[in-house]
Amino acid sequence: MGLYRSSGVYCTQCEADGFRRITYFLDRPDVMAVYTTRIEADRAEAPVLLGNGNLVETGSVGADRHFAVWHDPHPKPAYLFALVGGRLGKVETRFTTMDGRPVTCAVYVEPGKEPRADYALDAVIRSMAWDETAFGRAYDLDVFNVVAVSDFNMGAMENKGLNIFNDKYVLASPETATDGDYAAIEAIIAHEYFHNWSGNRVTCRDWFQLCLKEGLTVFRDQEFSSDMRSRPVHRIGEVRSLRARQFPEDAGPLRHPVRPRAYAEINNFYTATVYDKGAEIVRMLRTLLGAEAFRAGMDRYYADNDGRAATVEDFLAAFAAVSGRDLSAFARWYERPGTPRLAVTATYDPAAGRYALRFAQSLPGEAGRDGPPLVIPVALGLVGASGPLTEASSPDVRDGVYVLDRAEAEIVFEGVSEEPVPSLLRDFSAPVRLDLPLSDTQSMRLLAQDSDPFNRWQAAQDVSLRLILDPDPGRADAFAAALGRFLDDEALADPAFAALVLALPSEGEAADAVPSDVDPDAIHRARHDLRAHLGTALRSRLERLDAALAPAAGAAYSPDAASAGRRSLRNAALDLVAAGDPEAGAARAAERLAGATNMTDRLAALGTLALIPGETRETALAEFAARYADEPLVLDKWFAIQAQIPEAGTLERITRLQSHPAFTITNPNRVRALIGSFAFGNPTQFTRKDGGGFSRVAETVAVLDSANPQVAARLLTAFGSWRRLEKSRAAKAVEMLNWIKAIPGLSRDSADILARTLGDG
Hints:
five-stranded mixed sheet; 47% helix; globular; 27 helices; Aminopeptidase_N-like_N_sf; alpha+beta; four-stranded antiparallel sheet
């Protein structure tokens, strides 16, 4: 991108190679320099002038212009260069680092929106303090600035001392932001700040090492959010995202190693594989080495590479040096594309009190043959009828972890007094697909008795998924009874966790479990029927929870984790009741919408209503749009909810919405809200048998490609799973992909995605 002007604000985006669009430069990440930047502008047009580093001089240039000089004493690559100029308001505070440096921290926003920046500013301060405690990293400049830009193409950018954000990740108030928005702001503010060390002070030698900064920094922001909120709940959210975004990428034509071997367009490799799978590799490294050795390895990595452009080998060498471990086999995680499959079988000898688990890992390579085995840390335990069997032991399991480093292996537990249910991949200790043949009864034992929160949630997901793919009313009754017992015992003790247990796997996750000939309509019907079944069976319990979780009259909104958890379960209860009784659900949702005092409850009620056709829905949608006509970020939510309605009329609705005065194809947030939500969040309508969904997205790509190729290319990735669809839908997808391919002058971004999706690249 380089330097551009949007909504009256001059700003930059130089990652990966935008600096060459500003001036001549060898803008590879390993070319590092110290920058002094003088910015001049019309004083009325751009009273605020910001750059990297510390402000060292300001002054006038004639009567109407002024200048500012910024100096960054730390060597950095050109992709971290930034400047901003415009009319901006700010909120600011001071932070003193652990080594005594006073830092002025400021968040700049459009004038009038300053009160909505307070939460982001608080997140900056908490991020600085946490990084000192958790990783020993102190900030190294006198100022730290964050700027929110409404049309910023990227989510956020970690430019040294001057982070630039899309304003959806900065602005928040109870009236306009949901609990999820607050959590996202907290996480993304932290992510960009943490780049100050993992990306800026130690950067990448080349773009093939992108995972070195992004995977590591995602891991760091995940740990921060886990400490700020509920660790088990946050971990479940991370894995849900990984499975929804990265697992399908690994299974489709766009799959690639965490460290790619080649690329046609680097912009297309800011992917879930690089970010999220990259973070899982770092997490596995901590599991293998232990927390103490991991921290020592991080300290060594920073000490050895500060001010340098590093590689994955440099990163692993630091941990090998402090631990004495050979990590050469572990490094295969960076090189092997695809998601490993871990098959497990069990045998029990009651007479000997012996229980054996046999593991077999597989990951077909490009030629269809398995490569060398990966190092897979399997956190595990055994669960009996009354809870974990703590007396069982195996010499192969240390600190609750078995390290599988062979293609096949068996481990044996002694002192096993009853036939257990294995609890494997606790806390999702490795990003693999687990093949473990458990019955519904065994899974429900894990839900009731396991000590690992992640695997308790996973057990409920497994039963739900089996019931979606193989519906059975009798088994659904048994599952509802198990959920009822769970709610009675634990819902009010941990509402956020209970809400996750109630949430069924998405239609996309269900489709991901079907190897071929996927029928999105059949999956949708089965999931809808299971929701209705559970909503009916659990109705009395859900209604009691709804009442028990209702906020006290006049209670002030707080985005803290405990309050958010209560809202999450209450809204989940309403949604499930509505699935069982749509008429009653619509009435209750309309009542909730009218009485809501915050955007979380208001949007949840609108989302429930959106799934129930009728006049109540349309009235609610119209009133919502009128109320928030001047709130762009809220209108994005309104567009997104409608784009995901799984009905035949949604395509016509999208046509109307594209003509809505608030829709503009030049705003990336608005395009992602309407067309992106449709393509990625509405499987039945995107993959319509008549091809209308594919056509609508393809037409948007064609219009958008010349103006915003990065967003266009991202939309194209929605076609990535076309080979797994049933044949008639797959043919319609290919037809539209070939139509796009024939467009003259297609951008390099889109052409790259297209070639790989069709198998031409």
